[in-house]
Design goal:
The complex is a heterodimer of chains A (424) and B (244).
Chain A: H1 2-11, H2 13-53, E1 56-60, H3 61-65, H4 79-89, E2 94-108, E3 114-125, H5 134-137, H6 140-143, E4 144-147, E5 155-159, H7 160-166, E6 173-179, E7 185-196, H8 201-204, E8 207-211, H9 212-218, E9 227-231, H10 239-250, E10 262-266, H11 273-309, H12 311-319, H13 324-360, E11 362-363, H14 365-368, E12 378-379, H15 387-390, H16 392-407, H17 415-423
Parallel strand pairs in A: 3-8, 5-7
Antiparallel strand pairs in A: 1-9, 1-10, 2-3, 2-6, 2-9, 4-7, 5-8, 6-7, 11-12
Chain B: H1 2-33, E1 37-47, E2 52-62, E3 66-73, E4 81-85, E5 88-93, E6 98-102, H2 118-122, H3 127-130, E7 131-141, E8 144-153, E9 162-168, E10 174-180, E11 186-198, E12 201-211, E13 218-228, H4 239-242
Antiparallel strand pairs in B: 1-2, 1-13, 2-3, 3-4, 4-5, 5-6, 7-8, 8-9, 9-10, 10-11, 11-12, 12-13
Classes of the chains: A alpha+beta (424), B alpha+beta (244).
């Protein structure tokens, strides 16, 4: 019977083409929108994770309490042994010590006097160990605008915008002026090896990226680090798992309120990220649900209209003696076929357009000028496994439900009045 | 009416006298702690949240306009020099071979992680030039009688809008001081002790600074040797001397 119904659908274009086009468009929009929202929300979380928050972050209790001020006087010490312990306790997590620091970058003239100066925010991370994942994590190779990545001790990267502001070029000497871990003034020379454009307004304004060992020398932080970032297996932030890991770590020192006790926070437990993570979760769900609901209504309506449009055909079939149940069943089967075909085509197109946005992104740098939030200037979609079946919810179920509802009318038709209706 | 007039006259008279006395007290304090020039060696013990650090230095100063400090230890700070000329301050770092002028918000930074800021080091003006003082009362500190002086800034370019000083009534040296912001917030507290007679003047050789807004147990500043009215060559107070 399925073969017979399929033949009917293929031959009678009015029963298949328009419904399939409508279902496909609806499903395509649903898939595309879901991938876009997932990408947009996830991108902000992952950007923050890679640059500053990690999926997990180990720091001292005092540092965690005043994290916004980057209090390196409360930094972790004996970091190599602490990292070893973390690797043992959490084998699936990648741990990377980092030092965030602030200060001034001073560019000297030929006499060693200040030529230009500007405030900078710095990140010290492992750049020189062969195979260090930090370079990829910060996407430094692709972000490089001029020069090369640091290859030797003492070499640093500046953001391209900042280097232009200071009028320095790769190969130039620059001096960092800041505070050591003990509060002394730190004056340390670096060689600018290259410039980068991170694609984030907040980072591109005044960032210096240096190898962590250089930062340790500059800030008198021998085997110390402000924070140790942890990145979950798979590279994506999963709040439930991250919170579980923090509970496991922090339960080791439950009553210790000393400022120097190491504590672990998940990304969602750091500053305003908590609000953002819960907002991202609920927004993503709400927006997707609203869209799926709207599309369901449209496709349900399409199914309903399709059923009503075949009022005459149903009448003839009843007059010819076909069972009401049989007609109802065949109409549902047909709508299932249209739903499957439309959903499949819509999913393919939706995934294709989502892939384009994932690959090339949408540039929103124009509206990000002056922003202090770490947000990407290029918004990208992210195709997740859900996108492969999500479109079938409105595409298949709504179409079928629409047909089922409109088909109820078949049972209200009376054979005695059929010919009268057909004459009309 | 007559009583009110008498009361007003008495109040004005006593407040005027107190003001005059306070100024005289301050002048006597300045004659003890100020000098035409001096050379001193000091040890600064910084009681941080995690460790204590000891920094030694040698300072040359002429009046309140010129000062040159060379840090002698520990190794990380050795050779770091600071030069103050009028209202400008430079710091030389031997490891980077750079001379940096400290200005603007950097003046509020801590000197070597201590409870002293560069701003504190810069403002060597005589108290009588910058503040108007009144005697607010008397108190006994460590068995010594003191006057409590309240100082309020009469110029705008001061680091601390008001101060409260406890002055030894016999030796005319401050034994305690509190420094306040314009809002009335206490910013720093200093305790001065080990007052010694040096070259005919009383001079406190141990000062404990506590920045109220900073963690840690304060900074102990000990003057290990001090010589007044020495001959200091002029080249010391030049930028060229920083790199030598």
């Amino acid at each position: 019977m399925i073969k017979f119904l399929l033949k009917g659908l293929i031959r009678d274009k009015s029963r298949s083409r328009l419904p399939i086009i409508v279902v496909s468009i609806g499903v395509m929009l649903t898939v595309l929108m879901h991938a876009y929202i997932t990408g947009f929300m996830g991108d902000i979380i992952e950007t923050n994770a890679r640059f500053s928050h990690g999926h997990l972050k180990v720091m001292t209790r005092g540092y965690a309490d005043n994290m916004q001020q980057i209090p390196n006087d409360l930094a972790l010490v004996n970091v190599s042994s602490l990292t070893g312990e973390l690797n043992q306790q959490f084998p699936g997590v990648e741990w990377s010590p980092r030092i965030q620091f602030g200060g001034l970058i001073d560019a000297p003239d030929e006499n060693g006097e200040t030529r230009s100066q500007g405030p900078a925010m710095g990140i010290g991370l492992d750049l020189l160990t062969p195979g260090s994942p930090e370079i990829n994590r910060l996407n430094l190779e692709k972000s490089l605008v001029r020069g090369h990545l640091p290859a030797n001790q003492g070499e640093v990267l500046l953001s391209e915008v900042f280097s232009k502001k200071l009028n320095v070029n790769p190969g130039d000497r620059i001096t960092f002026i800041g505070s050591t871990m003990y509060g002394s003034m730190a004056i340390y020379n670096f060689i600018l090896s290259g410039t980068v454009s991170m694609g984030h307004e907040a980072l591109d304004r005044g960032t210096i990226i240096a190898d962590i060992e250089d930062v340790r020398l500059a800030l008198d932080m021998d085997n110390a680090a402000g924070e140790i970032l942890g990145f979950l297996e798979g590279g994506f932030y999963l709040d439930e798992i991250a919170v579980e890991e923090t509970e496991k770590f922090n339960s080791a020192n439950p009553g210790n309120t000393d400022d120097f006790t190491p504590v672990m926070n998940s990304l969602s437990q750091q500053g305003t990220m908590n609000t953002y993570v819960s907002m991202a979760k609920s927004w993503s769900a709400y927006i997707s649900l609203i869209f799926i609901f709207a599309m369901s209504l449209v496709l349900w309506n399409a199914g309903l209209l399709g059923g009503l449009r075949r009022y005459g055909e149903v009448g003839i079939r009843l007059a010819m003696g076909e069972e009401k149940d049989h007609i109802y069943r065949t109409m549902i089967y047909e709508s299932v076929m249209i739903g499957i075909a439309g959903s499949a085509i819509g999913t393919i197109f939706g995934l294709f357009f989502a892939w384009l946005i994932q690959r090339y992104g949408i540039d929103i740098s124009g509206i990000m000028k002056g922003s202090s939030i770490m947000m990407p200037t290029v918004i990208r979609a992210r195709i997740s496994p859900v996108d492969f079946y999500l479109g079938f919810i409105p595409g298949l179920f709504s179409t079928v439900i629409g047909t089922m509802l409109s088909g109820i009318g078949i049972y209200k038709r009376q054979t005695a009045r059929l010919f009268k209706e057909l004459e009309a | 009416m007559k009583n009110i007039l008498i009361l007003t006259a008495v109040t004005l008279l006593t407040s005027g006298l107190a003001g005059q006395n306070a100024e005289e007290i301050l002048k006597k304090v300045e004659s003890n702690v100020s000098s035409d020039n001096r050379i001193f060696e000091s040890t600064m013990i910084i009681h941080g949240t995690r460790t204590n650090r000891t920094i030694t230095a040698k300072t040359y100063s002429v009046g309140d306009k010129q000062s040159f400090t060379e840090y002698l230890s520990p190794a990380r700070e050795q050779g770091t020099k600071m030069l103050k000329l009028e209202n400008q301050l430079w710091i030389y770092s031997p490891s980077s071979d750079r001379t940096i002028q400290i200005s603007g918000h950097m003046l509020k930074q801590s000197v070597m992680g201590s409870d002293l800021s560069y701003e504190d080091m810069m403002d060597d003006r005589k108290l009588t030039e910058v503040y108007s003082a009144t005697v607010a009362g008397e108190e006994v500190i460590d068995g010594r009688n003191t006057w409590i002086l309240e100082l309020t800034a009469k110029v705008s370019d001061v680091a601390y809008y008001s101060r409260k000083m406890w002055i030894d009534t016999e030796r005319y040296v401050p034994l305690r001081e509190e420094l306040y912001a314009r809002s009335g917030q206490l910013l720093k507290r200093t305790t001065l002790s080990e007052v010694k007679m040096i070259d005919g003047r009383w001079f406190p050789t141990k000062i404990i600074y506590k920045d109220i807004l900073k963690q840690g147990d304060g900074t102990e500043f000990n003057i290990t040797s001090v010589k007044f009215n020495q001959s200091i060559p002029d080249y010391i107070f030049t930028k060229a001397a920083l790199k030598q």
